[in-house]
Amino acid sequence: MAPRRRPPQKALAVLRAYLLPVEVAVTVFPLIAALIVVPVAIRGYRRRGRAGGWPVLVFYSFVFYLLATLLQTVVPLPADTDGHCAVTRYAERPQLEPLAFRGTVSTAAAGDWAPAHLVTLAPAWTTLLNAVLLLPLGVYLRYYLRRGFLSSAVLAFATSLFFETTQYTGLWFVYACPYRQFNVDDLILNTAGAMAGWIVAGPLGRLLPVNNPASERSRYGARVTLPRRALAFLTDTAGWLVVWTLFAGLLGVAADWPTGRRHALPAGAVLGLLWFWLLPAAMATTVGKRALLLRVTRPDGSPPGALRMTVRTGVLYFPLALLWLTLVHETGTLAMPGPLGAVLPYATVFGAVVLWGAPPLAALLRRDGRAPHERWSGTVNRAVMPPKDDVPGPPVPEPAGDRRG
Q: Are 231 and 288 in contact (CB under 8 A)?
């Protein structure tokens, strides 16, 4: 029996070089996912009527793939920039001869084209990996983004050209020299691989769940679930914090630090009244609810009126007001009289547990699922169906089955 061939060190080094960016992507991806989770959820409710489901899994896998592919372009980075530029010269000139990889693989194979021999050659692995690098991109373009063959080819070529340009410019001139070569064969192999993925996506798509946002919206769009309401509340609170932080920063720059610090908390309170009370009272919705396609009405669907919105806002944001008073007292901006300052932190926690903990309990225990701020104000949340033009694809009738949110 002939001795079994082992891949040489060069082939193993090529594989390790391609696996290292994937390891980095695994480390970085959770941070990116945390940063985009709220915008992605809002987009899901607006486009499909819900934030979860199979399309979300496909989207996050697409983000991970794009991250890993981008890192293939830049990782590993040279540790010693000056030393690298002084020694490495192969990347100074681009390789512009089409299909030059055939001669490179042929020279390395030395006439032996047996598969067992090719798997030991670094040029063969480099060629193969360049061909499959953008193959998943073609699948995503056809199945998830619904792109045609020609537009997918253009997008794949543009993606590959961006990668090659990034390498040739030394990470867009971060480095003093190119640390990887611009290779026209990479453009050819990457684009061809993406087109192969586009073709594969045809039969593969018949095995996967149907990607039809219009159908999902018709089924889930009218549901007002607890996660949807919680996301609207989080969006309102985060929006107020962002606006207040920017305002306080500009105030500190325009005046001076002591003045900015002295007026920051009162300005936040005034902004809170405008953000959480006056705007909702005038519009019967909030910024967060508007983003989530929600609107406040009476149970019969009529407008709530300013008084009901005032009661609703006061009850809902009472714990936030207590927290604000606690911060004012603890920072010395406004000292509370007597034992009130000592009691404020406990009152804040108690109010948050009772009023903000009630909606989940109401959703589980009460048939109407209404929280205290809704029952006491006589208001409810209602979903606002977006225009049909907001979601591509013809509307599909709702299938029979479970209709619970």
A: yes
